[in-house]
Amino acid sequence: MVVNESIKTAVAGEKNMALQRHPAWQALARHCETLRTRQLRELFADDPGRAERFQLEAAGLFLDYSKQRMTGETMALLFGLARQTGVESRREAMFAGEKINVTENRSVLHVALRAARTDTYTADGHNVVPEVHQVLDRMATFANRVRSGEWKGYTGEPIRNVINIGIGGSDLGPVMAYEALRHYSRRDMTFRFVSNIDGTDFAEAVNGLVPAQTLFIVSSKTFTTLETMTNAHSARDWLLRAAKDPAHTARHFVAVSTNAQAVRAFGIDTQNMFGFWDWVGGRYSMDSAIGLSTMLAVGPENFTRLLAGFRAMDHHFRTAPLEKNMPVIMGLLAVWYNNFFGSQTVAVLPYDQYLKRFPAYLQQLTMESNGKSITLDGQRVDYQTGPIYWGEPGTNGQHSFYQLIHQGTKLIPCDFIGFCRSLNPLGQHHDLLMANVFAQAEALAFGKTAAEVKAEGTPDWLVPHRIFEGNRPSNVILADVLTPEVLGSLVALYEHSVFTQGAIFGIDSFDQWGVELGKVLAKRIGEELFAPTDSGLTHDASTNALIRRYRQARA
Ligand code: F6P
Fold first, then answer.
1. pLDDT at residue 18, as a whole number
2. Residue 2: what pLDDT?
3. DSSP for 159-212?
4. 221 CB near ligand 1 (under 6 Å)
5. Is residue 325 within 8 Å of residue 314, measured between CB atoms?
6. What pLDDT does 1 receive?
7. Which residues does the annotation mark as catalytic?
8. Percent of the chain at pLDDT above 70?
9. pLDDT tens digits for range 519-552
10. Cα 364 to Cα 358: distance, rounded to the nearest angstrom
11. Residue 127 Rama label (left phi>0; alpha psi -120 to 50; beta)
12. Ligand 1 mean position to 225 CA, how many Å?
């Protein structure tokens, strides 16, 4: 593997000392001791301007971070840490197309996917923006043909059903975006998504669909992923059981990939392939051709609006000073709890049913990016890296795991996401929904004291159970209404927050070597499962026994 030495050396130079021994880090550690016992109640009482001071607007989003356990001094120290660890220069290196993904020797240019036609982003010495727009234009032409009924299946009927086959970044973004923008989508068409190699996923996805009206998008950056290729072959078999003639696949299969050769080998005409580039990571690809299903659902115009939202947040991230930079602030606060308060997780709680897959999408974005333990210069970290992101739409979560967030022993910073207007106004529903956002953030921060509980007439023995300690931090992110632009801004906000965290940790947020070993072993074991029952196995005793048991049951 060729490693870009200049980037590696530059980054190692910036981090010329281990993160924990860095003066900015040590200052934060000392500061944290003084702040640990301070209550949000006090911080608000001491500073009447706090709510106004710790809020920010950018790219259609409003962030209230005043209910975080920090002061102006904390933020100043965090901004110092960001500066001293080179967040700004690394950000510029990304936008400049430098190969900051050092272990794969690649540029990281997902920001180019949403560039305006007149923008310039350079990878390997050439401006990639014209190619990006060429693909977007082809996607739009194709989407219009399918949506208008001009693109026909093998019987001459128009396409009514679209199934995206992909996994990881080639699935989670498309599913999330489809669900999030369902309000803007074609209701007379069916959109489904197959990711799991479990045959149930495929069987349920095609259940009730007419092959002659069904289009498969095989989405895979590499076009080698076992799950996706297995599902793609099953899809072809399913189609051909009805269509008979293999020539008919051309009307029912398109591919999204960087691997034209493998697409051709599968039997898809590369005329019907939509490309992207190795400088787009899978989990950063929902706004590339991987978003073809999104474009088919909501139309090219709404897809363009989505890209505009991403672009607005990119611009903000690149140009706003750290002190006014929303993704930077969110990333720094994540580091604050992860590394100084020992929090292991961040809960993301969207109060909008359309965002029901947003937490699942964020899991890959955050954890495949920052779930690393080796620094850019090859050292084992001696500090925590990426926190676990998880969540569920409100208010459902309130009746499930919020008990632990309010009264459990763990400190779980929360991101609440809400909208001032609903896309489906219905009586009092939206006001009640939003009342819950504000109530939860308030309850977490300020709790309820023993005196308050007693004053309600609670018997003494029950008082401890009904106390809410409070002092539990949260962000509240608000937007006017869930538009394609807002969705783009929101995703880019988290992308750049992840970037900020990764830059501070000094890790490569853009590779994913941790998925390789399992893939290799599964391939080997997959072959062994078919071998004769008594043939030898050389795994550990536990794995050998499990394989033998399965072989016997299968036989
Ligand atoms: O799980 C690892 C991974 O490589 C992800 O990073 C990626 O999003 C997913 O697999 C799918 O990969 P592909 O798009 O190449 O099929």
1. 85
2. 40
3. P-EEEEE--GGGTHHHHHHHHHTGGGS-TTSEEEEE--SSHHHHHHHHTT--GG
4. yes
5. no
6. 36
7. 368, 399, 519
8. 97
9. 999 999 999 998 887 788 999 999 999 999 999 9
10. 10
11. beta
12. 7
Mean pLDDT along residues 87-113: 98
Q: Closest ligand 1 atom to the C-alpha of 228?
A: 16
User: 339-360 burial string, b = 16+ CB within 10 Å, else e?
Assistant: bbeebebbbbbbbbbbbbbbbb
Give the number of other Cβ atoms within 10 Å of residue 55's Cβ.
14
Q: Is the CB of 169 under 6 A from ligand 1?
A: yes
Return phi, psi of residue 157, to 5°.
-85, 150
Cα 522 to the center of its chain, rounded Å:
26
Distance 368 CA to ligand 1 centre (A): 10
Q: Please name which of 385, 389, 397, 370 lies closest in space to residue 514, comparing C-alpha atoms.
A: 370
Is residue 118 reached through a cis peptide bond, with omega within 30 degrees of 0 on the bond before it?
Answer: no
DSSP letters, 398-425, are GGTTHHHHHHSSS---EEEEEESS-SS-
Pocket flag, ligand 1, residue 167 (CB < 6 Å)? yes
Q: Which two tokens stand for residue 160?
A: 């009514």
- 217-251 pLDDT, tens per residue? 999 999 999 999 999 999 999 999 999 999 999 99
Closest CA to 10 of 122, 125, 99, 97: 99
Mutation to probe ligand 1, out of 164, 219, 225, 513 (largest number of atoms < 8 A from CB)? 225
Ligand 1 centroid–CA 370 distance in Å is 16
Cα separations in angstroms, 278 against 255, 320, 496: 16, 28, 19
Q: Is the CB of 282 under 6 A from ligand 1?
A: yes
How distant is the alpha carbon of residue 196 from its chain centre? 18
Tokens of residue 31, six digits: 């500061």
Contact 61, 489 (CB under 8 A): yes
Encoded tokens for 68:
């975080």
Q: Which of 372, 371, 375, 353 is nearest to 362 (CA)?
A: 371
Number of H helices, E strands in the chain: 21, 13
CB atoms within 10 A of CB 216: 25
What is the DSSP secondary structure assignment for residue 283, as one 8-state letter? G
Cβ–ligand 1 distance for 512 under 6 Å, the answer yes
pLDDT at 9 over 70: no
Amino acid at 534: D
| Global model pTM greater than 0.70 | yes
Alpha helices in 244-325 (DSSP H): 260-266, 292-319
Q: Does residue 13 register a pLDDT over 50?
A: no
- Please, what is the end-to-end C-alpha distance for the chain in angstroms? 43
Task: Give the pairing type, strands 122-123 and 126-127.
Answer: antiparallel
